[in-house]
Amino acid sequence: MPQQGTAYLVPFGTAGMVSHPNRWRAKAGEILIGENVVVENDLINKEPAATYYDPQGIDSLPLQVAWTPTTAGAPSIIAMVFVDALPTSQYFGTRLLTGIAGTVTSPWVSAPFASIVAVGCLHAVRISALTGGATSITDSRGNTYTLLTEVTQASGLHGQIWGAVITQQIQSGDTVTITFSPGTANVNIISTSTSDVKVPLTVRENESASSTGSTTSSISGMSQSYPLIGIALAASSSSTVTPDYTSTFRWTNRATVNSGAHRLAALTSNVWWASAHIAAQIEWVPDDTSAISGSTTVVAGSNIITTQVNTVNAFRPGDIIIVGGESQVVKDFPSSTQISTVTPFATNQTVASVTRRAGPVLITVANIEQFSPAGGYILKEDPTRGALGAHGNLDAIWANYPLAMVRPGRFVVGGKEDASRLRKLFYLNGVDPVQVLPGDGQTAAPIAKPAADWGTTQDASKQPLNGIVHQDSLVIFGNLNDPHRIYWSTPADHEDFQTTAAPAVPYMSIRVASNIGRRLYGAAQYQGVLYLWKYPYGIFYVDDTPTDRLQWSYRTRSTALGCAPSPYAVLAVDDDVIFCDAEGHFHLLSAVASLGGTRDSDITRALGLHTWTQQNVNIGTLNTLVSVYDTATKTAWFGLRSASASAQTPADNDLVIRWDFSLVPQGGPMRMTTARMWVPNAFCLKHRDFTGRQAVVIGEYGNAWFVEPQTYGRRTDRDFVANADTPRGVATRISLPELDYGDAQPPNRAVRKSFRALEMIAQATENTNHPVAMTINVDGVYRQTLRYPQGPNRRRLQPLQCGDGYSLSGDITTDGSVVGDVPLIGLVVYYAPTGTDQSRKS
Q1: Environment class of residue 111 by beta-carbon count within 10 Å: exposed (0-12), middle (13-18) or buried (19+)?
Q2: 340 near 319, Cβ under 8 Å?
Q3: How many whole angstroms separate alpha carbon 522 and alpha carbon 512?
């Protein structure tokens, strides 16, 4: 169509989310909402792509049923399925509970139902038989039943779970008809009803097992999607045994029948959320070195090392192997006497020994509910062979005894006080004694010499929650019994908070303004100075200019501003510190006036996002806030809990707020966008390809997702039923403010305009079937929806039929049905002024 009218350009990427209380201040390029999008390339991309890290994960879906009395000669079976559910799902009890001894007449018709099964409920039918089984199920209303899983023991004991999402309500008095295979005999049947499963019915996991005896049966599954509903059965060929649920985790709804000459137990879970929650993660580079004896040969131009079995066993992927002075990164182990490296060797070498330098591993703290109340564990990964650090077994090594189930926790890297000492990883959570993982060790232990105030036992009133290394000492703070004090280790030993006698440089502590604020939570170094933050107010810095450390003291930066009650509320960036205050507003330390207020530093209010924050951020749960700074994209990530988060997941975050600093060095603005597709319980940075650029790792429930730089619009999960990866698209939303084009020509504000056409301009697209929709509002009233199917043309022009008015606004959305990105450069709106007194046309 011809492009008639004046062109008004709306460039994307020049600004992030900005919400002016006075809409006349809105400018082209600003967006009101940027959900599941980023602006790191100075345009609008979809959410960065990420793939699960651990092919298995830490979390599990366990089922264990024991039989009483234990009967060695009575075969038994166990089976379960998990399906997608809504948070509102409820268990409504049994509907069928019956057994048939002897041969079953087929088709078999149940007794009339005594109560209804409502539309949207999952009617799950469990059938066990000593011989044979069912081939189909129908009911009086014609609902469709599908075989979800089955298991058969060698003796013939057979179990099945059938299910139907009810589309026609089963009424009181209706029946179920089951068709059995010929010869089916001795059958038990139990059905149950559960509401609010997702449609279409999606099975996330199914597992089964059989045994020659009736003892204890256990199975376990995995999932990366929640919430779920679990449906299970356990059967024994003996009719006299009874199920023992003593060690059965979460399967709270149970029924049993033995009329069919054997015993069937039916189990149903309530809404099943993840039972493992990551509390903290870090890429730990211990840098331990060791010599390993054994003849080793390398050839120039080859990445294969020929060596001895003991040498191969000493390495893991990511380690550095030094052969005759040449260093290479270990990739894989083609055989028991071969090591492959990431890049080829440059020289020919045959040596009697090699040197190992320990490479990076992810250290995770996970709260695992099955072991509650003491279910927090420090876990060390084993990187996957050949994966170049993109995958690993997160819980390959359990490095400590159970800790308290709290989150978030905080890792601090210290140690290596001199050449003879190892690097050390310290872990603080405010409840347990400070944990220390030395070097590449496999066991964490409490700190050797804790301060007297902390004690040596688990105690939420005494243990510290954060720390930082400054002036060669480990500085720790946050213990509730003295919440205003910072403790300095001896410079010679970061585990020593006790020694004061000469000639050692002593341990010391400093009380920081006990009349201001409630508790120290945050710390960061800014321009070489150590700053400290308190909740809810108080910012201080340490005056460490005297040569005698015992003369060091603190100075006050602000008494009107502090941080949120999380050790991650304060985040150092390239040349500043961004921090979240007690109201969910974000600030820059460089803009905090000494002893002054908050207005200059409050970037949330400066961008007009204070109302958005009030409506979208759960201020009462800022204690779960986590953060990380991506140095490659100059973006600060904050994970926190939204105001709309499910009440059934009170400890999990569901909102990401990003602050992009990449334009700031050029005098440009900070740009904020959000994401709602993650469970950001922990953040850390990890190197791609072991030594490449760092990217963000998002720790969720029992797994983590590793961001793939410069790739967008995809989240890759694992399908444990199909045993395959499942890429998922990303739904996005971009809301444009009301634009009256006065920023381009001020007289436009008072003039009605006829809106002629709208052109959407993309950089490129990864998929020609990617649907993009834009709703059009004129003067705040919905008028039209435009659809822009992607294709080889990066510019798409659509006519507008929305009438005239003063301002145009709208939402640009993608539904996530297609994997990939739609990088948007901007819009061009074609309009013509119509005058100040023109009536609206429709």
Answers
A1: exposed
A2: no
A3: 13
- The number of CA neighbours under 13 Å toward the Cβ of 751 is 14
| DSSP percent split of the chain into helix, strand, coil, nearest 5 | 5, 50, 45
Short-list 472, 463, 473, 466, CA closest to 430: 463
pTM greater than 0.85 (yes/no): yes
Q: What is the pLDDT of residue 839?
A: 46
* CATH 2.40.30 placement within the chain: 289-357
Among 639, 616, 719, 743, CA closest to 22: 743
What is the 8-class DSSP label of residue 111? Answer: P
- 3-class secondary structure per residue, 421-443: CCEEEEEECCCCCCEEEECCCCC
Q: Greatest CA separation found in the chain?
A: 94
Q: Does domain 289-357 have CATH number 2.40.360?
A: no
Element (H, E) at 522: strand 519-526
Report the 10 Å Cβ neighbour count for 303. 17
Rounded Cα distance, 540 and 558, in Å: 7
pLDDT tier, 593 (very low <50, low <70, confident <90, very high otherwise): confident
Q: What would the two tokens of residue 316 be?
A: 């893991």
On the CB side of 673, how many CA atoms lie within 13 Å of its CA?
Answer: 30
Residue 641 has pLDDT above 90, yes or no: yes
Cis status of the peptide bond prior to 680, with omega within 30 of 0: no
Model confidence over 139-149: pLDDT tens digits?
999 999 999 99
Q: CA-CA distance, 49 to 820, in Å (whole number)?
A: 9
Instruction: Note whether 299 and 306 are within 8 A (CB).
Output: no
Of the pLDDT bands very low, low, confident and very high (cuts 50, 70, 90), residue 651 is: confident
Residues 6+ apart with CB under 8 A from 147: 160, 161, 162
Cα dihedral 496, 499, 504, 507 sign? positive
Fold of 6-34+729-835: Jelly Rolls (2.60.120)
pLDDT in tens, 382-398: 999 999 999 999 999 99
Measured distance CA(341)–CA(329) in Å, rounded: 5
Burial status of residue 699 (CB atoms within 10 A of its CB: 0-12, 13-18, 19 or more): buried
The answer to whether the beta carbons of residues 795 and 828 sit under 8 Å apart is no
Phi, psi of 505 (to 5 degrees): -70, 125
Q: Which residues of 431-444 are buried (b: 16+ CB within 10 A; e: fewer)?
A: bbbbbbbbbbbeeb
Listed in order, the ranges of the chain carrying CATH 2.60.120 are 6-34+729-835
